[in-house]
Amino acid sequence: MHSLLRRQIRKNLPEELKGNPDLDKFFNAIEKSYEDYDDKIAMIQRATTISAQELKAANIELAQEAQEQKKTLQALEQAVNSLNLNLDNTEDIVHSKQNIVSAQKLAKHISKQAEHIALVTKEKDNLVKDLEEQNKSLNNYAHVVSHDLKSPMRNINTLMSWIVEEEKHKFTQDSINNCDLISQNLVKMDKLVSGILKHATIGNNEEAKSNVNISLLLKDIKSTIYIPKNVTIKVADNLPTLFLDKYRLEQLFMNLLTNAVKATEHLENGIVNVDVLEKPNYWQFSIKDNGKGIPQKYLNKIFEMFKKLDNDVESNGIGLALVEKIVTFYGGKIWVDSKEDEGTVFYFTIKKN
User: Fold this and answer.
1) What is the pLDDT of residues 134-179, one digit of tens each?
2) Does the record carry Kinase as a key word (predicted)?
C-alpha cells in the first residue's frame, strides 16, 4: 500500500488506535480493493457485447417464428373456410366419396396444425422466460461489477489528489501534467462504467411516466450542456408533449444534441436544428447540424457499442448505442443521413401514446 495513503490514514486516527497491530490488516484490505479492476472492466464489456448479440439473435428467431405462425394461421383459415363450404353442401358430402375423403383429410390437417401451433407457442414462452431470466442476471451482474469498479477508481483519484496536494513542490511540470492526465482518465473510466450500466438497464428499470413537454426539456438540456458562443441551437415551435419517462427522453436528446454541438464547435457559425413532423401514428424528430459530417464507411457502425468516430478523449463510445436502445424501447426507428464537411441529420420516431 502506498506510504502516503498510510500516513494520511494514521494522521487522522485517534491516538489509542495509531499503535493498534490490526491496522496492517486494515491497510491490506484497502490495498486489495485496487486489484483486478482492468480484468473486471473487460468482463463487463464482454458480458454486455455477448448479451446484446444473444438478444438480437433471439429477437430475430422470435420474429421468424411469429411469421411462421402467421402463415400457419392463414393456411388454417383457408382450410376452415374450405371445410365450411363443403359442410354447407350436405348432399354432396354424403353422396360424394371424394368430398368425404377431402373433409377427413382437412380435419386431420387442422388437428396437426393446432398441435404444431401449441408446441411453437410453448417453445416461444419458454424462450421468452429464459431471456427474461438472463436479462435479470445481466442487470444484477452489471450493478455489482460497476460498483466494484467505481470504488477503486474513485479511491485512486482521491489518492492522486493527495499526492499532488502534498508533493507538488517536488514535481516537475511534466509530472504535474501526467498526474492531471491520470485523473482525467479515471474520470473517463468512471463515465464509461456508468454508460455501460445505463445501456444494460435502460429497458429493465420501471418507467416513471409523466407529461414531458419536449420544448421545456430541450431548454433544460441547453442550460446543462456546454454550448460555445459560435454554436446556435434552433428549436421548432411545434414540439409535442409526450407521456413517457422523462429520464429516458433526456438521455435521448442530450446525447444527440451533445454530438451535434461537438460536430459544429470548430465552425465560425455552427447551427443545430431540432424539428419534428407529425405522422398519423408517430412523431418523427430530426436533429440536424452543419458540422463536419460522418464518413460513409462509418454510417453502418455508429450505433454499435464502444464505436468512436474520432479521438475525442471525453467520448466513451456508448452515447449513440444508448440512443438507439431508447428509441427501440419505445417501438421507434432511428437512422442517419450525413455528408462529410456538409453536416449530419439524425432522424428517429416515437409512437404516439
Assistant:
1) 666 666 666 566 656 667 777 777 887 888 888 877 888 888 888 8
2) yes
Neighbours of 339 (CB within 10 A): 12
How confident is the model over 237-286, as pLDDT tens digits?
Answer: 999 999 998 888 988 998 899 999 999 999 999 999 999 999 999 999 99
320 — phi, psi (to 5°)? -70, -30
Domain 209-351 matching CATH 3.30.565.10: the answer reads: yes
All three cell numbers of 295: 464518413
| φ/ψ bin of 276: left (φ > 0), alpha (ψ from -120 to 50), beta (otherwise) | beta
pLDDT in tens, 189-212: 776 666 666 655 565 555 678 999
pLDDT at 36: 65
Joined together, the cell numbers standing for residue 312 give 475525442
DSSP structure class, residue 94: H
- 5 Cβ contact partners less than 8 Å away, ≥ 6 residues apart: 30, 159, 162
DSSP of 198-235: HHHHTTTSPP-EEEEEHHHHHHHHHHHS---TTEEEEE
Q: Which residues contact 29 (CB under 8 A, 6 or more apart)?
A: none
Provide the 10 A C-beta neighbour count for residue 165: 8
Q: What are phi and psi of 307, to 5 degrees?
A: -95, 125
How many C-beta atoms surround the C-beta of residue 151 within 10 A?
13
Per-residue pLDDT at 291 exceeds 80: yes
Q: What confidence tier does 92 reach under pLDDT thresholds 50, 70, 90?
A: very low
**8 Å CB contact between 93 and 109:** no
Inter-axis angle of helices 173-201 and 37-88, nearest 10: 20
d(CA 238, CA 215) in angstroms, rounded, equals 8
Distance from CA of residue 216 to its chain's centroid? 24
Alpha helices in 241-298 (DSSP H): 246-264
Question: Rounded CA gap, 17 and 1, in Å?
Answer: 19
| Rounded CA separation 210/250 (Å) | 13
